[in-house]
Specification:
This protein has 277 residues and is α/β, with parallel strands linked by helices. 35% of the residues lie in helices and 19% in strands. It has ten helices and nine strands. The strands form two sheets. It has a seven-stranded mixed beta sheet, sandwiched between helices. A two-stranded antiparallel sheet has the order 1-2. The chain binds glutamine. The site of glutamine (GLN) has 13 residues, from helix 7.
Length: 277
Amino acid sequence: MTYNEICIALADAGIENDRGEAAMLICHFCGINKADLMQRREESFENSNLDAAVIKRCSHYPLQYILGYWDFCHETYRVTQDTLIPRQDTEKLVELAIRMMPEKARLIDLCTGSGCIAISALAARPDCHAVAVDLFEKTLEVAGENAETNKVGDRIGFLKGNVLDPVFMETLGDFDCILSNPPYIETHQIPLLEEEVSFEPETALDGGDDGLDFYRVIIGQYGKYLRRGGFMLLEIGCDQGKAVAAIAAEAGYRCEIYKDYGGNDRVTYLTRPELPS
Ligand code: GLN
């Protein structure tokens, strides 16, 4: 298939970024770079893996899983169907963490998935250490691999644990910050999301009936693991700011909301007024 034929196939299937994706698929499966592709636009690439990938993409299987990797912040991550695909929206949380973490901070990333939050934060802050938690062994294997390829493996520990039942926290000590992009979609909304999302792990999306299950537990129960002056940065859905701020206020936190690059509410920054010692 030629570049143009692939563009047409993708566009016909309703893929928005048909040109960009066609280029990425050809470059990946034919081992060439974008500059080469410019010279070879008319060429018919005879590659059965490429053909199969185009067919798969036309069925709205995510490009990221077809390629097997995706960029996030300044790092590249392996992604499989055991991990949520890292979103650009989440880069805001990482950027804030990098800026706000004290010297030699110890952070914990809850619901780590591909590990992108903890790993990109550590990559930018060589003085810091992390623990990353996820419910699934297979997900943690991918995250562990991502820590190694991004050269932070010696500063991060992975732990299998259920974030909604924080018994595993008892033996971990305390942290300067708690970071999380927890599942936050309302259960009934999940079938209404774009088709690509149906291939992602539902457990990484489902935040319960009102989408707020994880915020209630993280904000309500994890505060005792924060050091003095510690903070939480939690990603939220663009319409969840008020609800999460209310949960935070009830638990005695100050809550600031930051927007992502698309201008939507995306991150809550939670701090506690210090208790007299
Ligand atoms: N922390 C991961 C990410 O931001 C996974 C989040 C999740 O599984 N809900 O991509």
